Task: inverse folding
């Protein structure tokens, strides 16, 4: 199942510089693992937004919840999750 | 009476690790008591949400207020409570 | 997968009486079918709210989208869908 | 159980004058019945607000839902319901 | 004049325990004085809400502002005040 | 007592031209009466806003509610009323 | 440039059935053209939401505005557009 | 004085085609006059938004209110006006 | 030009008592200067609101911005500014 | 591509005075660089608002994101970015 996930990280950005750099390094390492597992499919920055928007895939809400809670930044963030369903236009085009 | 209760816990997640673990252990112990009393009927996580959604049952608002304020995390959370009434469709189906 | 679904129906309630009664009859018939299929698990009224709150289960977002769009009232409503994940407390209690 | 109920009636006020007068007459008649039954305890206007705020009492959410849906204006309104619990200060003062 | 007053106290609940108990004791003492003066007529808890809802009466906005600012918790709270006007239905029923 | 009153009139502006002109004429006539009685003290436009902001004075919420409901545009508008209390700085300056 | 576009279509769904079918057919035809041009890259349904979420690509805001305004449903919808920037994690993974 | 003005026109877009074309022609004619007078300095579309964002200049709020109310679309729109003040950085750069 | 200014001061109220008293004294001194200059015309408290509502006059947005930023409490507050235009009713009554 | 960027800086204003002055000096230096590069075209203050509104230009969202994240105040702010498209009226007037 696909999910659109918008993670707000303003409390992370406001950390002292060194703590921020360490947390970001651990976060990116975990991000690469999730990407390799096909759970984190792609990620974008939104200009001006303290956070990111990403396309995630998981068997179900449990797997997605586990993945999000495995992020080192998890205790300091809030994430808005939108479940995505196939659009019939894409099925017609053959790209579902 | 049934209530849908959405508890937001972002201030709990941001606690120092040890304090968080201790509070969570006490919280789960209390949760099990409330579940045994039939007040906390079931609980879900919402992927990405710092908190939970649950189905609670109480004689009235007083009993629900007492139960929520008995939670060790209570001073740090806010909870949105929606009173639930029987739906006539469920009465017709015989599942009210 | 479980979903909490809050359906707002103020545009349905405002229909002329006869049209409302006919639509409601067809809606309840469809509701019973979805309940029999285990997709609509339970439904509540919320006092004062023009709509309902329900617990739905579906293989994934596609099946849920199809079920919601199969409701006769669908063109006149908006629904807020919250994906639900198992809570570890319920797993510990053995009720996940 | 006590409930604070805020009923928004802007769609009622916008009805053609005659239809409005007839609906209001039926609404007040029903209001008096509910007051006599002790369900509608008191009602206030809020200056500038198209609607009212009231203190309602009911055995539970079912009885409150039935009472609200019995109002002639029900199909055209939305109501925000807040369950009220006893405050310990009032218990101490002896006025709970 | 009657006012519906909703006081949000999440910053009070988050105080260290001892400071909280002391502030609460002073707050209840002041509450009892205001109740004795007929300014604080009644107070409710709202299950899950860090705060309270109350019915206050004062000559005018000045007297209400003074009463609210006299509360020991005042510097840490925000209050939403709704002026209440008599409802003609209550006048008709003779309970205005 | 003084009140800040923000009246939103977008449903009035959208009326057919002739109906709008007639309603506006009656509205201004009533406005002049309320001004003469000292209830409507002053009125401003807000550039771009379909409505107005005004300073109103009334004995209490009842008198203000009556005045607002006496406006010919009343059935089509919503008004946000803020009760105003004397500011100690103005008392010190002698302008309260 | 990539954009996340959330199009709300509740006014379209509420059209009379025949008008809706005709508009939808023209809309899907236009959607296929935009997809063929690489402007509409992919589209999802969101269960319960009257509308869609899609990934669009355009040279700049002008091209995106033209594409959205070319949709037959355009006069009846509102769209929320979020510009997307490359995320450094994806650059590191080599998937930007 | 400069103002940032965001005009929402969804009620205009939903007009019948012919009425829309006529209104738009009159609107653009008026827009060109205001631009020639230096009141409407520049205008942008926002992709997906039913309306526009513009930079307006006027002696004061009165002149701006008159200009906005002179727009043929005025009765069907709402506009959000933000007064703009010189930024000291621009003064330093010599571009205020 | 007149402006309605709503200043929110909850971060000021939460200061330690002594720091609060000192800041308030400097704030009132500055307030009296601005009042004497005719920039701060009048100020009200809003019962329950941590802040104030005031009527300010300034040549333009620059002068208003300077005046607000000259307030000792400025770094800890946010202010909502509404530009006010003359209302034709007041011009007709001769009170514009 | 042009963007309207609204940067909220209340966490910057609340810094200790010295830290604030140092950060502001570095911020203005960076602002002048961005202005010289044509990325930051112009900037306004909004009376009462802890932040600024500006007109920015960048090849695409990536360049804008980099520019915003290069600001010394970036870790403490949030920015709302609106992509701007040419308005046909300006094209007609020859000012696009």
Result:
């Amino acid at each position: 199942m696909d999910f659109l996930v918008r993670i707000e990280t303003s409390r992370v950005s406001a950390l002292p510089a060194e703590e921020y750099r360490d947390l970001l390094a651990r976060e990116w390492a975990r991000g690469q693992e999730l990407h390799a597992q096909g759970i984190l499919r792609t990620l974008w920055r939104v200009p001006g937004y303290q956070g990111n928007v990403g396309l995630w895939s998981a068997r179900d809400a449990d797997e997605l919840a586990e993945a999000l809670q495995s992020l080192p930044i998890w205790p300091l963030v809030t994430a808005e999750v939108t479940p995505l369903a196939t659009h019939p236009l894409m099925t017609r085009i053959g790209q579902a």
